[in-house]
Amino acid sequence: MSISRKYGRTYHYDFSPGTTSDDRINRDWYDHISRMTKIVHTEKLDGENRCMNGVGIFARSHAAPTTNPWATHLKPKYDMIKNDLKEGNIELFGEDIYAIHSIHYPNIKEHFYLFGVRVLDKWLSWEEVKWYASIFDFPTVPEMGVNEVKGLTKANIEYHIVTQAGLPSKFSSYQVLPKNGVGKLCSMEGIVTRNFDEFDVEVQHENIFKYVRKDHVSTDEHWTRNWKRAALMNEHKKK
Q: Which of 30, 49, 81, 209 has CA 20 to 30 A from 57's CA?
């Protein structure tokens, strides 16, 4: 049994080319978006879903706090904020890119990028996510645009997402080849779209959608045996 509620699955857009047999697709995404006032698009980073709350630091599973060595870098910061998180029933969710997966990002200043804040049964608005990011001194995942929904057609949204997703990451992006070789400049992993406003946890699948490029995973299941830490921008300059 989980001691904390894990992050729900994010459904793919039906035009997302990077789906696998295990993924879920939301074919009614435009109907859901049409009921929103605003949407925000953010870059999907190639890392590990990380949660910090009053109980501990978690990876995807919330059965117990994570023991992964690439999550320990957050411990000093977590120790400073854990009482605030516990008092406010605040859960911070972000993309942790401390360990290099399939994309190498040469222009990062941090390793953890906030993308969501959950309080009890609510996902807070994007504006509140940015507020908590400033309070706890975390960057957010790169914002790719905010749109008023009124007047947006299905074709408008799809075109914007496909076009933006074809660009390199905001942090620059290079494909990691098998055996940890860094290949050529590549496009970002994908785009996540969410309701700009707050919404209930139970309807997450109707309020967050993702687009992932084809063949974005280039490492195998054994990458954890020889994982490497992602260097920060200032560390590159010292070399």
A: 209
- Residue-wise DSSP of 176-187: EEGGGEEEEE--
pLDDT value at 33 more than 90? yes
d(CA 173, CA 230): 12
> Contacts from 158-166 at CB under 8 Å and sequence distance 24+?
158/13, 158/15, 160/41, 161/13, 161/41, 161/191, 161/193, 161/211, 162/15, 162/211, 164/41, 164/191, 165/190, 165/191, 165/211, 165/213
- Give pLDDT, residue 149: 97
Confidence (pLDDT) at 239: 46
42: CB partners within 8 A, 6+ apart: 115, 140, 141, 142, 143, 144, 191, 192, 193, 194
pLDDT exceeding 90 applies to what percent of the chain? Answer: 75
Tokens 């999550």 correspond to what residue?
71
What are the b/e assignments for 145-166, b being 16+ CB within 10 Å? eebeeeebeeeebbebbbebbe
Residue 191 forms beta bridges with which residues?
43, 211
In terms of pTM, does the model score above 0.85? yes
Question: What does the block give as tokens for 67?
Answer: 């023991």
Query: Three-state SS for 45?
Result: coil
State whether residue 215 is helix, strand or coil.
coil
> What is the CATH architecture of 11-238?
2-Layer Sandwich (3.30)
Read off the pLDDT of each residue in 98-119 and give the average, rounded to a whole number. 95
